[in-house]
Specification:
2 copies of one chain form a homodimer.
Chain A: H1 3-14, E1 24-26, E2 33-36, E3 40-49, H2 61-78, E4 81-93, H3 97-114, E5 118-127, E6 132-141, E7 158-162, H4 187-196, E8 201-204, H5 209-220, E9 223-226, H6 246-259, E10 266-270, H7 272-280, E11 289-296, E12 302-304
Helix pairs in contact in A: 1-3, 2-3, 2-4
Chain lengths: 320, 320
């Protein structure tokens, strides 16, 4: 089975992705794809590797593909943007690569269909190494709405977060099989927020709140104070060990919520009057929003409400 | 050294990529990049792996990075398009990954500067596996010129090719260190052709003429007849072994020119009167253009002038 036959298979699958007006002028199979987009194109890329971001010994390859697109859609969500199309490059093992590639693409295509994203192109390779999936998504701003960035937070803004945090990777014998594989990227919620309210900055929580909130502080040039009692800890974070005191258990769970990473929830900032409206509205149907802190003039760092610095030790790829 | 510090380094480098009017609205460091493009965006992606497309035991990582961008620029060239920006995702070895990542980016940035391409964003990861580089390029059509595709060739069109073919990977003790690492993508030549002449189809020769010309035949729905005496064999293809007859040597060299792959020259089609003008003009200064065949009504396959089928056994990634 040659790469070209694999492209035929992808073509046969992507043909079914009907949109009211298909923005794709030329899809997979030429030297490049052509897509109609607004003058401002928004683009993100994420690369996922077997053994790092997923483990193909433990999970079906469809979930690996799904995740590879989902993390990219989460990036576009964080920009308050609309995803339009995606390009997929794969490194597959020589043996069994065709079946694996199809499963990965099926996982990608199912999520793509849900969010009306078309596959614009790709590149398929085989090698002796483990599977690598790189997805690039292209999107556009929402009508009459500027993209949201990390640099727009202002002193006085409230800090809000969707959903709950921590334990996304799974625990114990289910380690690696958690929410990080099945989460729904907050594309719709981000669009509702950006269309309906004044959002001053936004980020998706991929590395853990302790790391990602620090990006907002740094890029916006202000101190973010968080209230430890308000951080929404996910039910996926296990209860503390019985030998721990209730307070130590609480601290342990809070640390997981702050640093586990791969939550792919949204953290965003809004002026207090707007934030209050968001908190009492029901636009994000089913997705809770929690007020977890405030922005103030000060060093571009993250602190607890009492002034204690928060160490940004969320998950980051270390390069030596 | 965290990924974030690596992004700082990339930011410090990309800041110097000045263009008369910088189309990049938001560069590396947010959840996504923002770029101003014409309504039709042209996008391509290619993934290169250590041990497959380059060998970091033998070559400097700058050349690997350079090649990763160059093959993408070659794809945009084949569309007769103008490259604007690129996104880079990397999988780097945990040990020594920072230095390697910088070298790869330096190779990318040097070529990017030459072609006025800005780095719009990226994703950097580390793992126990070998280095993987995935580059996505975004571009736009040339002014008042539609992108060139593989499907526009018409019966009667002449088939032309730039440069010479074969031996790109290097030979003997220099295997792996050939032209495929240092070639200049034919972006300028493709633009000159697309702006000045009626080009009906175009492709870049990545898998070898025997494979790539067959794509044009297939997508355009016609037979392409090639003249074996006109295929421009590169001086990089070694002379035949002394024990071979001159005719056998010639056949061996022709086979290499047809199937070695990674030439990254352009093959294109034009009506005969236009093709004659291209062949006698000097617009592609320094880059030879050769008339190698014709398109005729018939099965969508590749044949020699005498009607013998040409087997498309160029380099392709085999997936089982």
């Amino acid at each position: 089975m040659s790469e070209w036959q694999f492209i035929d298979w992808i073509r046969s699958k992507t043909g079914s992705l009907g949109k009211p007006v298909d923005p794709v002028v030329l899809g997979p199979g030429d030297d490049a794809g052509i897509v109609r987009l607004t003058p401002e194109t928004i683009a993100a890329v994420d690369m996922l590797m077997d053994g790092v971001h997923f483990d193909l010994k433990k999970i079906p390859a469809t979930l690996a593909g799904r995740k590879a697109l989902a993390v990219n859609l989460s990036d576009l969500a964080a920009m308050g943007a609309r995803p339009v199309c995606a390009l997929v490059s794969l490194a597959l093992p020589t043996k069994g690569g065709r079946a694996l590639g199809e499963q990965i693409m099926e996982g990608i295509l199912e999520l793509a269909k849900e969010f009306e994203v078309t596959i614009l192109g790709g590149d398929t390779n085989s090698w002796a190494g483990r599977t690598v999936i790189s997805v690039t998504v292209l999107g556009e701003p929402l009508p009459d709405r500027a993209p949201l960035t990390r640099s727009g937070a202002r002193p006085g803004d409230w800090v809000l977060v969707t959903g709950s945090l921590g334990g996304s990777l799974g625990q114990g014998k289910n380690l690696g099989r958690g929410r990080h594989l099945t989460f729904t990227p907050r594309v719709r919620e981000a669009a509702q927020l950006n269309m309906g309210y004044e959002i001053t900055s936004m980020i998706d929580l991929s590395d853990g709140l302790a790391t990602d909130a620090a990006h907002i502080a740094r890029e916006s040039g202000l101190t973010i104070f968080l209230n430890p009692d308000r951080i929404p800890v996910s039910p996926d974070v296990p209860k503390g060990s019985p030998e721990l005191s209730p307070e130590a258990s609480k601290q342990q769970r809070l640390k997981q919520a702050m640093t586990d990473g791969e939550d792919f929830e949204l953290m965003f900032t809004s002026p207090p009057d707007i934030a209050r409206k968001i908190l009492t509205s029901s636009i994000l149907s089913g997705v809770p929003v929690t007020h977890i802190g405030e922005c103030r003039v000060g060093d571009p760092v993250l602190k607890w409400q009492d002034g204690t610095p928060i160490k940004a030790d969320g998950y980051q790829h270390q390069l030596d």
